[in-house]
TrEMBL record:
Keywords: Glycosyltransferase, Membrane, Transferase, Transmembrane, Transmembrane helix. It comes from the Bacteria. One of its GO terms (cellular component) is cytosol. One of its GO terms (biological process) is hypoxanthine metabolic process. This is Hypoxanthine-guanine phosphoribosyltransferase. The chain crosses the membrane at residues 44-61. One of its GO terms (molecular function) is magnesium ion binding. It comes from Thiocapsa imhoffii. The lineage of its organism: Bacteria, Pseudomonadati, Pseudomonadota, Gammaproteobacteria, Chromatiales. InterPro entries: HGPRT, PRTase-like, PRTase_dom. Residues 27-141 form the Phosphoribosyltransferase domain. It catalyses: GMP + diphosphate = guanine + 5-phospho-alpha-D-ribose 1-diphosphate; IMP + diphosphate = hypoxanthine + 5-phospho-alpha-D-ribose 1-diphosphate. Pfam families: Pribosyltran.
Length: 183
């Protein structure tokens, strides 16, 4: 659904920046080092979890200087809302996963249910090894942990660097917490 321009501006004005672009860059450099340490030499299949991981993938992949391939998984649980619901699979590249070292790349680890389902699906599809990396993890319990985490933020609804608010703000150059009244 579309957001009126006035409402869009008001949400942005009330939001609080939690992470600056410079801090994201530093986190991505560190993530790239950790991922290289874990996966260089395994010819991994990197799976970008659409749509939110599009920025992480775009910024992280050029920092990985080893042999790898890229595909995507499309799964959604929030569907433009600020609370998660049923997980809906839109694209699952099952036939490409068998016997592969898989790296799942996502933007945020919140409840961890999305990552848990993806990891289970990759194992069910015959992956040899499944590892995961997220740009941001919220400081709260998760159903599943990521192997590599870029940044930790408080448990508030956030947008920017691929993360949306009602389908918008994925292009925000910082990570912002939405004001309580807007959640
Ligand atoms: O840890 P969880 O509570 O399961 O939430 C994390 C998931 O939520 C977001 O996806 P969303 O369903 O919003 O789809 P999107 O990627 O299209 O934004 C995000 O990209 C993660 O995949
Ligand atoms: N955009 C966005 N998506 C999420 N999915 C789970 N938590 C969040 C969040 O805080 N922001």
């Amino acid at each position: 659904m579309k957001l009126e321009a006035q409402r869009y501006d008001a949400v942005a004005a009330r939001a609080q920046q939690l992470v600056t672009p410079a801090e994201v860059d530093t986190a991505l450099d560190r993530m790239a080092q950790e991922i290289t340490h874990r996966l260089a030499g395994t010819d991994p299949l990197v799976l970008c979890v659409m749509t939110g991981a599009v920025c992480v993938a775009g910024l992280l992949l050029p920092r990985l200087h080893f042999q790898l391939r890229v595909d995507y998984i499309h799964v959604t649980r929030y569907q433009g809302q600020t609370r998660g619901g049923e997980l809906e699979w839109r694209y699952r590249p099952s036939e490409r996963i068998r016997d592969q070292h898989v790296l799942i790349l996502d933007d945020v680890l919140d409840e961890g249910l999305t990552l848990k389902h993806i990891v289970e699906a990759c194992h069910a599809d015959g992956a040899r090894v499944v590892q995961s990396a997220v740009l941001v993890a919220k400081t709260r319990p998760h159903a599943c942990e990521a192997d590599v985490v870029g940044l930790e933020v408080e448990d508030r609804y956030i947008y920017g660097y691929g993360l949306d608010y009602k389908g918008y703000f994925r292009n925000a150059d910082g990570i912002y917490a939405v004001a309580d009244d807007d959640v």
